[in-house]
């Protein structure tokens, strides 16, 4: 749905599990360059290991300048995986001409975004959204089973049930990534 073709340049906003999967899928589709925008350093490090060409902390850097410095001259696709109005608006701003902006992150039902129709018109942007459907699970499992998608690199730790309360009660700990709980 993102229109990624060999040689494309893609930006993924959000380095959670979904964003890290999208990064890998963009590479599998043939994107020549993929950038990840993510404020949490641990997630940026995982993204680099999974093939991100550049990882940018959007809270501390001028994203457009950093993308240009990394050779992103025409961003064809931006995949927003956070689900916040501010990051959806950011996706629209950094998208290049004739780009696809995929709103994959789920916002709250009553949230709105501020869109400048002229910017959409001027860049000839295509705004899309994706709703998870029952036909993707088998394909996803096949990609994992064949090793084309790496999900093991996204797990930041394995621990017993005694650590579950600590993990769930600490946003800082949860921000590092996913944990596997082995009873």
Write structural notes for this entry.
It contains 8 helices and 8 strands. The protein folds into 2 domains: 9-129, Rossmann fold (3-Layer(aba) Sandwich), CATH 3.40.50; 151-183, no CATH class. The mean pLDDT is 91. The protein has a 6-stranded parallel β-sheet with strand order 3-2-1-4-5-6, with helices on both faces. The chain has a two-stranded parallel ribbon with strand order 7-8. With 183 residues, it is of the alpha/beta class.
CATH architectural name of the largest domain: 3-Layer(aba) Sandwich
Q: Which runs of at least 5 residues are low in confidence (pLDDT < 50)?
A: none
Shape: globular
Give the biggest beta sheet.
6 strands, parallel
| Strand neighbour order, sheet with most strands | 3-2-1-4-5-6
Helix and strand run = EHEHEHEHEHEHEHHE
Return the structural class. Answer: alpha/beta
Tell me the total number of β-strands.
Answer: 8
Structural domain count: 2
What is the count of DSSP helices, taking H or I runs of 4+ residues? 8
Distance between the termini: 39 Å
What's the Cα radius of gyration? Answer: 17 Å
Note the beta-strand portion: 15-25%
Helix content: 25-40%
Arithmetic mean of pLDDT = 91
The CATH topology label of the largest domain is Rossmann fold
Q: What's the CATH class label of the largest domain?
A: Alpha Beta
CATH superfamily of the largest domain, called what? Answer: NAD(P)-binding Rossmann-like Domain
């Amino acid at each position: 749905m993102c229109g990624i073709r060999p040689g494309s340049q893609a930006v993924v906003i959000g380095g959670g599990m979904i964003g890290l999967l999208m990064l890998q899928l963009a590479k599998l589709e043939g994107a020549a360059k993929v950038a990840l925008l993510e404020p949490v350093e641990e997630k940026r490090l995982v993204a680099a290991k999974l093939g991100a060409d550049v990882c940018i902390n959007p809270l501390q850097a001028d994203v457009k300048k950093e993308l240009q410095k990394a050779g992103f001259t025409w961003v064809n696709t931006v995949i927003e995986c956070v689900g916040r109005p501010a990051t959806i608006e950011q996706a629209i701003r950094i998208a290049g001409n004739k780009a696809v902006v995929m709103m994959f992150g789920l916002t709250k039902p009553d949230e709105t975004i501020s869109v400048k129709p002229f910017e959409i018109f001027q860049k000839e942007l295509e705004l899309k959204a994706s709703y998870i459907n029952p036909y993707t699970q088998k394909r996803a499992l096949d990609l994992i089973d064949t090793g084309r998608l790496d999900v093991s690199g996204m797990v930041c730790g394995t621990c017993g049930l005694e650590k579950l309360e600590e993990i769930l009660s600490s946003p800082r700990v949860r921000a590092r990534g996913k944990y596997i709980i082995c009873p």
